[in-house]
Write a structure and sequence with these properties.
Elements: H1 3-40, H2 47-58, H3 70-88
Length: about 100
């Protein structure tokens, strides 16, 4: 095996490991946010966001192949943002 191929394979493995690590970190953050919102009274209409993001991360059908976790990270970030906005409630008048 040539050194160029070895470097390419090692680089690809590192990239996959980093993106998977980010996805797992975001999943943990999403679970913590859900727990915090549940203690504070999570609105029922926002629960589908949490379960949808978790299902998208775990299901094999993705927009991009699984070695590239960018779509999974995007789904988790959108869910996290949506759940955080639910915790903040509706904006005050005049804001």
């Amino acid at each position: 095996m040539s050194t160029e191929l070895t470097v390419l394979l090692v680089g690809a493995a590192v990239l996959v490991a980093v993106t998977l690590g980010v996805a797992v970190m975001l999943l943990i953050r999403l679970v913590r946010t859900r727990r915090a919102l549940r203690r504070a009274g999570l609105p029922v209409e926002r629960q589908w966001v949490f379960w949808g993001a978790v299902a998208y991360l775990l299901l094999p059908a993705d927009l991009l192949p699984d070695p590239v976790y960018l779509d999974d990270i995007g789904a988790l970030l959108l869910a996290l943002r949506s759940m955080r906005s639910a915790a903040d409630g509706p904006p005050a008048p005049g804001r």
